[in-house]
Amino acid sequence: MIAAPEIPSEFSYTQDTDTRFSSDTDFSEDPDGRGANSAKGKGGKKGKKAAGEKGKGGKGAGRINGHHQENGMENMMLFEVVKLGRSAMQSVVDDWIESYKHDRDVALLDLINFFIQCSGCKGVVSGEMFRNMQNSEIIRRMTEEFDEDSGDYPLTIAGPQWKKFKSSFCEFILVLVRQCQYSIIYDEYMMDTVISLLTGLSDSQVRAFRHTSTLAAMKLMTALVNVALNLSINMDNTQRQYEAERNKMVAKRANDRLELLLQKRKELQENQDEIENMMNAIFKGVFVHRYRDSIAEIRAICIEEIGVWMKLYSDAFLNDSYLKYVGWTMHDKQGEVRLKCLTALQGLYYNRELNARLELFTSRFKDRIVSMTLDKEYDVAVQAIKLLTLVLNTDEVLTPEDCESVYHLVYSAHRPVAVAAGEFLYKKLFSQREPEEEGAPKRRGRQSPNANLIKTTVFFFLESELHEHAAYLVDSLWECGAELLKDWECMISLLLDDPLPGEEALTDRQETALIEIMLCTVRQAAECHPPVGRGTGKRVMTAKEKKTQLDDRTRMTELFAVALPPLLAKYAVDAEKVTNLLQLPQFFDLEIYTTGRLEKHLESLLRQIREIVEKHTDTEVLESCSKTYHALCNEEFTIFNRVDIARSQLLDELVDKFNRLLEDFLQEGEDADEDDAYQVLSTLKRITAFHNAHDLSGWDLFTSNFKLLNTGIENGDMPEQIVIHSLQCTHYVILWHLAKSSEGSSRKDDLVTLRKQMRAFCMMCQRYLTNVNTAVKEQAFTILCDLLLIFSHQMVSGSREHLESLIYSPEDSLQSELLSFILNHVFIDQDDDTNSTDGQQDDEAVKIEALHKRRNLLAAYCKLIIYCVVEMKTGADIFKQYMRYYNDYGDIIKETMSKTRQIDKIQCAKTLILSLQQLFNEMLSELGHGFDRSSSAFCGIKELARRFSLTFGLDQVKTRDAIAMLHKDGIEFAFKDPSPQGEGGPPLNLAFLDILSEFSSKLMRQDKRTVHMYLERFMTFQMALQREDCWLPLISYRNSLQAGGDDDTMSVMSGYSSRGSSIRSKKAKPPAAAAGTSAAKRKLPEEESSSSSEVWQQSMQTPVMMPSPHLTSTTRTRSARPEGQISARSHLGDAVLVLFRSRRGTGLMEEDEEPIVEDVMMSSEGRMDDLNEGMDFDTMDIDLPPSKNRRERSELKPDYFDPASIMDESVRGASLCAAHSG
């Protein structure tokens, strides 16, 4: 904590002492700030008019109702003028000053009402209130008249007309003080009244008053600081003039001038004392309390303005007594306030002359500033790094540990943070350059001044140990060090030239890092956009940027076209270096080869690439060679023919060699040795790498590869890598053939050939799904998924109907094998995946790589579900793994559910309920029918159902059909199998109703009644009377459906007592009228009410007590029975159809998923509304206040979730009597 001395509230400014204003030295002194008014001096109390001025201007000449009439703004208040912002602010202020000079009470009343109205208050301070009330009484009266229904007020209202209000408001205050600074502010009336009013408003509990008055007070303080600064300058000038005049000889000294200067200095001193008192009043009355206000915007205003004061008038404010407020507020919980602290400090540290006064503050709060570089708000982190960059101007303030905490941020994914850290790094490490002698020739290559800086960059990159993020480092340094990073001539010299005498050569590791950095700089210069993961989208380049890009591409091409062949020759055996070097031609301007007469260097490059292809078998190296050929084989440039001939010669040799080796290899069969297999594999790898980017259809690779794959199936001893690359090569053959056919110029015979090859290859991949080698199976599975997706029914879209004959739909056996592969190879524990770990289970990198591979396999299969290549119901086996493998695949499964719901809401719901049914059956087979419902397995299924329920979102109308179908399937499943205990026992799957109840909250109120009726048709009368624990799932599910029902007759026994009371209810009230009344009370849509009432009337005419419906076939037609004995299940199926038909035509389900907590809150809130509003009494209407009415109704409502209250003896007896009488 910065210690501050006691500062008196009164000041006498002299030349030899620092100017200081009064401020609190610590929070312990007057913590609530209530003693501020006692120290305000003349600003503490509202001034009164002199006795001789009371009657002056009483009629308010030139005004109507106290408002101005000048500049064509008749009867327009100050607030309206500032709000419109159309007039020059100085003329508005001048008009007010003229009014003040004419009658200051009326003018001040205008100003007071201006501040009141700027706060959004509709009240008006009258002249009588102004004369007879204290400020506290006026503020209390205005608070009573404040309309707080809407939380908006002028400073927070959005909209074009309020957009500039804040700036106009602040400008008015600044201009007002500036225009009054020579006379009016010293009259001990205007400023005292305004300061007193703003101080009182800033202490109000009304946010609008507090916010507006604080902004006004802070801007007023800023304006007074400007006045004080001018006074200080004038006093210094006057003092110098006085000293100069006094030091003259007596004969030449003008005594009159000395007296005038003394008088002027005295007036300036008095004026400064007045300004000091005003600033003391504002600082202690407003700032000290509001800089820790509960509202972040108010705190931010205070910190922003105190930064302005310290910057404007550093002699008075730049000391620890004021800096401490900024230091404390850097710990604010709101990023907006922390940001203002940093920007305020930047303005101070930018001026090096002020650094000496900041030493104590820097030592006290440096650690906090360093920690703010990791702030959760990126804007705050950026400004903290920029502030530390300015702090570097102060010698040895930041320790190496402080600097290292900023260095690593150059690898941040957030680009502004990374760029700021790059500026810090560049200033710290690269700002010191070797001075060049004047007149000496410019040094180039490794002798240039940039050589050591480039080495420093390499050393930093290696020490950071993030060798896969060179592109991020280059992008961070690009804006501040582009000149250094584009010194490719120096980089090439460091790699090719011998070191100078006494210079240490680069190590192999350093050369690798330098090549990687060099490649990243070339890519950044050619593409002019940040690396992947850091960009915010493509932006339009300016003309200057485009010219710079063209110049850089030309220069890099001229340099590397000459240097690349020797670089490849030097590092030909190093796979990592060669891979990076071979990517350079992708960024060349190939026209330079012709215009610059560099054809011989092109020939040298092609020779080097050919030698690298013959030497290496590494996949990355071969793919880089393939991409380089693809980049050079551009038909737009004249070098195309030369490169195409070289490529064709290379491929001819590779294919001939492969066919010859393959024939010998297959003839030898089991006698083939490892050398033969290696020769076949290495040649096949080269061909596969080139086939990825080049069309090799002319070499007929399908026949040879298919023969190899078929032999591998028959013999079963084909080496793993040969099979994998052969599958990949054949896949490329199919895709290139399809690409040529898609152009529309292919013949019918070509389509037939492609169709045969594709289907034969798919069957081959299906056979390899059963291979003993896991890597082979994974490759076959991935290729199969890709082919099924490419050759699905969607391939004919985009006017490609001629490809319809190529459409391939997988058979059921293939779908089953694909699903089995996913279940056996993806949904496994980490420790079980031993195929790729090779005894390195403890290696986290290997585990992460294996997880990525499994995620790719799952994503490939889920795409088949999303694009309807396989049946959606197969997704049930995927969805049921959602909870168990949430950390590994939760995002993939969740996205799949979302996409399938968009395709078909009802089918998606059936798939979800099917996944729960599968888990339930698995649990039964494991635990038996007598399982404990508190077991972890059952609770896990129930939690999964809850998660599924949350994915439906809050819009019940959109998901109405899907949720109803889900309940229908769930009820049928629960009653499908009879009780294993014999007649009278609960059905085998009855506990599934407990799981199904998780979806009850998603049912609309009228649909709950329909589903409840459907449930009753599966129940016998004896089931409703059971109270044992085994029947609790049925009880709880019925309760979840009855909560919020449309009619209070739908109680637990509604279905069983309704037969005896249905005739009475019909006599008492016609069903149509009852339905109409209910609909009117609930204001439901007409079609929903009609469908619900129709279903209800149908249920009234249908016998409820029927034998167990799981014995009733759903295929029986209605005509096979008399009308009064319709099958319960078929009848309720019609009821559900009525429900579905009422909602046909709704759009696809949107992704309106909500957070879990919020959704649960909404669900419980909806249930409470249902309980409170679902009781419709036919006897009488009691007109009670809403709250009391709801309370009494909730007391009358039975507690459906208490088993003891479900049925007491009297209800049971009445229902039995009704049953016997029926």
Automatic annotation (TrEMBL):
* Keywords, in A-Z order: Cell cycle, Cell division, Chromosome, Chromosome partition, Coiled coil, Nucleus
Subcellular location field = Nucleus; Chromosome; Chromosome, Centromere
Give GO terms for biological process.
Answer: cell division; chromosome segregation; sister chromatid cohesion
Question: What cellular component terms from Gene Ontology apply here?
Answer: chromatin; chromosome, centromeric region; cohesin complex; nucleus
Q: From the UniProt record, list the coiled-coil ranges.
A: 228-281
Record note on quaternary structure: Part of the cohesin complex which is composed of a heterodimer between a SMC1 protein (SMC1A or SMC1B) and SMC3, which are attached via their hinge domain, and RAD21 which link them at their heads, and one STAG protein.
Q: What is this protein called?
A: Cohesin subunit SA
